[in-house]
Amino acid sequence: AATKGEGIDGISKALSVGEWLFENGVCLPSDTKMTDEDLDRVIGIIKGLWG
């Protein structure tokens, strides 16, 4: 499957689902050693970005 995206030069191009996710997704930390404080910090940052 593909979605429409915009290339570097502003010209539309087809994106694979993987490319779309890479360009639009959010990578969250998921280390098994994360503390509650680490988790609270990540949550605070996300809430600050997307309120």
Q: Can you characterise this structure?
A:
With 51 residues, this protein is of the alpha+beta class. It has one domain. It has two helices and two strands; from the N terminus they run ββαα. It has a two-stranded antiparallel sheet with strand order 1-2. Strand 1 and strand 2 form a beta hairpin. The longest helix is centred in the C-terminal third of the chain and has 15 residues, at 36-50. The model has no long low-confidence stretch (mean pLDDT 81).
Descriptive terms for the model:
single chain, 51 residues, alpha+beta
Shape: elongated
Helical content, roughly? 40-55%
Percentage of residues in DSSP E strands: 15-25%
Number of domains: 1
For the largest beta sheet, what order do the strands appear in spatially?
A: 1-2
DSSP E strands, number? 2
Task: List low-confidence stretches.
Answer: none
How would you spell out the order of helices and strands?
EEHH
DSSP summary: helix tally: 2
Mean pLDDT equals 81
Question: How large is the radius of gyration?
Answer: 16 Å
> In this structure, how is the largest beta sheet organized?
2 strands, antiparallel
Structural class: alpha+beta
